[in-house]
User: What shape does this take?
Amino acid sequence: MNLKHLAAAALVAAALPAAMAQDKPQEEPFWAKGRPKNPVADKMAPIPAFPIPTPADKLPISKMKLPPGFKVEVYVAEIFDARSMRQGDKGTLFVSSLFGAGKLYAVVDKGGKREIKTLAEKLFLPSGIEFHKGSLYLATPKDIVRYDNIEANLDKLPAPVMVYDKLPGEIPHGWKFIKVGPDNKLYVPVGAPCNICEPDDRFTKIFRMNLDGSNVETFVHGMRNTVGFDFHPKTGNLWFTDNQRDWLSEDLPEDELNHVTKAGQHFGYPYCHAGDFADPELGWGKNCADYVKPAVKLGAHSAPLGMRFYSGKMFPAKYQGAIFIARHGPWNRTKKYAADVVVAFPDGKGGISKVEPFLTGLVENNEYLGRPADVMVMKDGSLLVSDDHNGAIYRVTYTGK
Assistant: This one.
């Protein structure tokens, strides 16, 4: 284990639980609730990002594997805790962060060289961002604000406009991924405030609202923790990744990619996981057939986060309309895997025909070399992949014929 890994591991007991847990100091943090009492599980804890962003020449580009004809390169390095990404009308790349940084970034082109601007800092888990008609929306577990005409004000942000301030504010699964849908409404998830529980009706939902925060309504029920969703470019239907509960087993339950076909559907949490597995605590008397099954399962604790339909023209025809998914990789599993980008191919009938590996190679000697957090299709058709573990963003292009 190198010095970076030692430093990162040292932060587990201090930095991450302190940032994540709202419990009293003497109580176990929320991520540990339900952990079995055995020496292997006792050693498991969330994996913190490297405390210092990895320099560009130390990033694991040479380890990454892609299908023939594709190339990956460093788009920008040393952007600490890089998480969600959005591209502005003028080409500005906006990047959010989470536990370690609490910052909002902009990446701009300065004479052919990319420059990182810190637009705001000391924010409360500012993971959720969306760019729409010149404005940047930013969501924390507590509220949603909007920065108008942001690309003309990168040197000094305008005062934020409050959009909605009635989010629960709970830290467990409270960080956001937000997006404006084809109906011109803002979609906002509120995850479970726990590993497994039956919370009140403020939680485990995807809400939608007008862009000014009015007319809030429930769109999805039974969602445990989504940090990535997108709308089908033709049907307009919402698809979302969902992370299932911890501590049942190293191999169960599997995380999900879900397809919403109408408002009000229930996807099972906390009663049924992965479409066919009744929860041993809360699933008694429930029938998994009563809930919407996932379009496809994505592996136990694989932690699927950001996802996008491919809408560009650069990649070969087989990828047109396919779904790129960043899998962060498990922390509470002895054998590490995922930490990759996979491609799910819709079957044209509302489901998924197959899932293929796309960007791999970031697990070595049972340690993570990087952990993809989000994907984004650029205007030129290339694909960006954020890596919050290293504090970097990679760019994938197609150079084959």
